[in-house]
Amino acid sequence: MQARKLTQLNWFGGLAGWIWLAIVLIPLYWIVVTSFKDQSAYFTQNPFALPSAPTANNYKLVIQSDFPRYFLNSVIVTAGTIIPAVAISFMAAYAIIRGAGSRFLAGVNGLFLMGLAIPLQATIIPVYLLIIRMRLYDSLLALILPSIAFSIPLSVLVLANFIRDVPKELFESMRVDGATEWGMMRKLALPLTRPALVTVSIYNGLGVWNGFLLPLILTQSPDKRTLPLALWTFQGQYSVNVPAVLASVVLTTLPIVILYAVGRRQLLSGLTAGFSR
Amino acid sequence: MTATAPPVAPPTGRTEASRAGSSGAGRSGAVAWMVLPALLLFVVFGVIPLVGVLVLSFTQWDGLGAIHAAGLTNWKSVLTDSQLPHSILVTFEIMILSWAVQTPMSLLLGTFLAGRQRYRAFLAVLYFIPLLLSSAAIAITYKALLDPNFGLGPGLKLGFLTQDWLGKNTLAIGVVIFIVSWQFIPFHSLIYQGGVRQIPTTMYEAASIDGAGRVRQFFSITVPQLKYTIITSSTLMVVGSLTFFDLIFVLTAGGPGDATRVLALDMYKRGFMSNQMGPASVIATLIVLLGLALALILRRLGGSTTASQQEGA
């Protein structure tokens, strides 16, 4: 039956699948190829041709325009968001599952769920006001704190789904052995939900690494720029030099692609599990 | 789940255990504090700004100086301003058209990816790459790619690709919808892939015994069985489309003219470029209300999705 299903399986879907692959890859191929061309080759060559004289000058130009600094800022903001965000979301998810029946916790859970339905970016003006009043404007912390808050709802939802799967008997037997809730969270729930923790970290990390609105509004000085904002200003400065602009696109994306190559199995399966329920 | 779990102890010491609190209340007291750090941050940077946006919509503020109460002035001026219906129209146009492009395509690709062949897993890995790029990077790339003088069209000497894509109103909206689809179809395909894999194969077996072909099976089994997945995916698309800020900001900055000035961009321009935080907060309030209303309507359409999400243990 399975074999029959597969042979029949749908040439239409297959066709769409390969066409979509082309749609996805053609622009990506073009970015990479062009980033190794010099400007004259860019203007004269066929856009899909490999560079006749490949050059790394575009990359040099990008790296010399302070990209290491922006890269470091992005790393600080992303790590500074994800580590605390996942830690406190995990604690909250644990409490919500273990304390089921408590009206307080049910209410908090409802609040987080509501956060999923609200486009939180629309609250940027009061966030801006808050950040100014906290005297955090134009600092990396100004990006980290709201980012943590914005990533809580989805993290709690996904982590709670996974903690719910931990068999109750395991908790029971640990408690018999005298474990506290804190101990059970660390020694039982934490290792068993590790795949979900990785998924949530990557997913939120992606959002923060690529975030544009918060850096645009909450920072000002060039030395506080994160990569997407740097990309935008770089593009403004070098708009004529398309190969250099595309080299900057490659450089900002490369670390993520490498991480994806390492952790893709986890991310893809985790995302499917987290959203398809 | 590869982690080792502690061995299950034999049921000795039962009396202490039940005394220690199998009652929900006693246990919840011991864990409730763990929710506090997340709650605190979410309240400060999520809930308070949510209330704040409503409060600020009744004030006058230039973003730097003092904040003054302004009563209903902002609401009156924004609601009678001809910019607002235009922005709402553009927002809905992009929302509905990008939903209509993404949903059938994601369904099709998701069903295709649900097959277990290795090349399909490989395709799924490649499909995902656009999601790794920032919207800013994507916008910058397409801006160069679609350039009427030096982009792909003139480079390949293809007339139909050589257009002033971002300079004409309808074309610019079409480009936004295309890029949004390019960026997010992979993500929704993945959601559908997971959904399709949860459909019992026995249903398909029964259907093919009854002589139903692939197309028939797709429409009478796959699509109805994916009801909740469709609702989840549509909710993410629709609510997400209210926040297409960075893509449009970098790509067209709302142009040509005001052709792609969606609500989020309208908010930004009023607030941070014209320094009118009051009217901008009116727009922000409308975005929040719109997001909530759309999420509720979609949830009503599909029964309760959050319940189904919580049940699926």
TrEMBL record, chain A:
Q: Tell me how this protein sits in the membrane.
A: Multi-pass membrane protein
Cellular component aspect of the GO annotation: plasma membrane
UniProt xrefs under CDD domains: TM_PBP2 (cd06261)
Question: What compartments host this protein?
Answer: Cell membrane
| BP term (GO), one | transmembrane transport
Q: What PROSITE patterns does the annotation carry?
A: ABC_TM1
What the entry lists under InterPro entries is as follows: MetI-like, MetI-like_sf
Keyword list (alphabetical) reads: Cell membrane, Membrane, Transmembrane, Transmembrane helix, Transport
Q: Describe the family membership recorded for this protein in Swiss-Prot or TrEMBL.
A: Belongs to the binding-protein-dependent transport system permease family.
Q: Which PANTHER family match?
A: ABC TRANSPORTER PERMEASE PROTEIN MG189-RELATED, ABC TRANSPORTER PERMEASE PROTEIN MG189-RELATED-RELATED
Q: What protein name applies here? A: Carbohydrate ABC transporter membrane protein 2 (CUT1 family)
- Protein source organism: Kribbella jejuensis
UniProtKB/TrEMBL annotation, chain B:
Q: Which UniProt keywords apply?
A: Cell membrane, Membrane, Transmembrane, Transmembrane helix, Transport
Subcellular location as annotated: Cell membrane
**Taking every annotated instance into account, which residue ranges of this chain make up the domain ABC transmembrane type-1?**
88-298
Q: Where are the transmembrane segments?
A: 31-56, 88-109, 121-145, 165-185, 236-257, 277-298
**Mind naming one GO cellular-component term on file for this protein?**
plasma membrane
Which residue ranges does the record annotate as region Disordered? 1-23
Q: Out of the domains of life, which is the source?
A: Bacteria
Task: Name the Pfam families for this protein.
Answer: BPD_transp_1 (PF00528)
Q: Which GO terms describe its biological process?
A: transmembrane transport
Q: Tell me what topology the record assigns in the membrane.
A: Multi-pass membrane protein
Q: Does the keyword Glycoprotein apply?
A: no
**Major place of localization?**
membrane
Q: Which family does it belong to?
A: Belongs to the binding-protein-dependent transport system permease family.
Q: What is this protein called?
A: Carbohydrate ABC transporter membrane protein 1 (CUT1 family)
